[in-house]
Design a protein that fits this description.
- This protein is 37% helix and 18% strand.
- The protein contains 21 helices and 22 strands.
- Strand 2, helix 2 and strand 3 form a beta-alpha-beta unit.
- Helix 3 packs parallel to helix 4.
- The longest helix is centred in the middle third of the chain and has 22 residues.
- The radius of gyration is 27 Å and the shape is globular.
Amino acid sequence: MKQLMLGNEAIARGAYEAGVRVSSAYPGTPSTEINENVANYPEIYCEWAPNEKVAVEVALGAAVAGARSMACMKHVGLNVAADPFYTATYTGVNGGMVVIVADDPGMHSSQNEQDTRMHAKASHAPCLDPSDSQECKDFMKLALDISEEYDTPVILRVTTRIAHARTVVELGERQERELRPYTRNIKKYVSMPGNMIGRHLYVEDREKRLAEAANTMSINRIEWGDRKVGVITSGAAYNYVKEAMPNVSVLKLGMAYPLPRKLIEEFANGVEELYIIEDMEPFYEETIKSWGIKCSGKDKTGVQGELFARKIAAKFAGEEEAGPMNTQGIPVRPPVLCPGCPHRGLYYILGKLKLTVCSDIGCYTLGALAPLNGVDTCVCMGASIGMAHGMEKARGKEQAKKTVAVLGDSTFCHSGITGLLNMMYNSSVGTVIIADNSITGMTGHQQNPSTGFDIHGNVAPQLNLEKLCESMGIKHVVVVDPYDLKKFEAVLREETARDELSVIISRRPCALIVKQPGIPFDSDPAKCKNCGMCMKIGCPAIRKTETGVKVDPTQCVGCGLCATVCPFGALNAKGE
């Protein structure tokens, strides 16, 4: 049977067919749908972990115990998981273990362009790079086989265009795998220096064997065409090359690391001019040049942004330069907080008090945009707390009273707890705001330890954020509704004035999950002075006209925040 599948959906299907028993992940675009689809297969134990480090540790534990396992994350998640992962390539596995990492060329929803192939080389882990959904499924199964044959975790790397594109997939049946026997082996699994010195020698030998085997793997294949030009490529770029340069010779690399040197040398000797066309860093190009093979690629495309067929045709096939991606005259539409978003009131007050705001990764990062303009810094998961602490230690307590850290409930569970503990332990003065919208919002409403539900929607133990903060010894923990602007402002003024650490939990569920009970609001033209105060909250349902503001009833959810800031009482629920 054939089915149209997302690349992420096909990876989940490959895990199912290959007999995976355990899957752990933290949601992150463009990887989120993998574990969501794995959860549809009851044969696989599936969970959302608090962060990617934990996810890899869970997968490793399952693999050492003899089960096939997987962990999923976006590219920056592998930074968080690098600690256990880099050592796992030394200890090896027992059952097969695959870490699926989704890169984001072009930064569609990420803070950087990071190439996971670099992690593969640095960690000595084999890395596969599929080009469509069928390969996503097939490569997932192959990665598990390689993992068991070569005693190593394997990276399956996808990019946004592969993760979120749909192509036809041939479905197969699940092949159940018996648990491999677990044998206690201290020299293998206990990463003490004396043990790992020996394991490093094994890793070096394994890498040589994999590089040799790569020369004959079917996933690395030559497609001979016009031999005047040869292209080495992989992943999404392979599809663009085939569209833009259909007649050239192509070496398609299914294994991104280690590279098949003999096969590459054979291909290079068979063409007159060699191009390397790859998304992101010149990973292939630099390695191939180091072997003394003449080639080029990044001198034409650069390393920034993602590739696409028109760009390749212009740079390598001499076609007319591609026109602008954005139609002229149409304004850019950046993402905004949704109508009724609880974070809007939070950032309105932060901006009003002109505080320095160290924000974090999540929906609330959008508070940086006009008209809220409420964010000063945003780096990575959990960095808001550490950076606020660092500012206080650099500039003193008076700076701390003007600085707050803002992060969501999921981000707090991911990386914020240790940062808050550090502030308490080191006698920091400052205010941390946990924007608790009761879900992992930015990636599409996944559960987390503070929501009270697991990945399947079943009731689960719920982390009590207030008690956790109090257990650290924080004396001032206040819960406030961000829709109540007057109270929120009063609480914020009080807590930032303290000479000790305090936590504000800004609590109201995401408006996309818990629909507002009110009816849409409207403006009374007789009362509206067109002063623009309601525009300062940045609600997309409100627009300003020459005769006064108008509220779009198709977008308004009736939260009433606009009425709170209107000084003339011009905004009310319809009919009132």
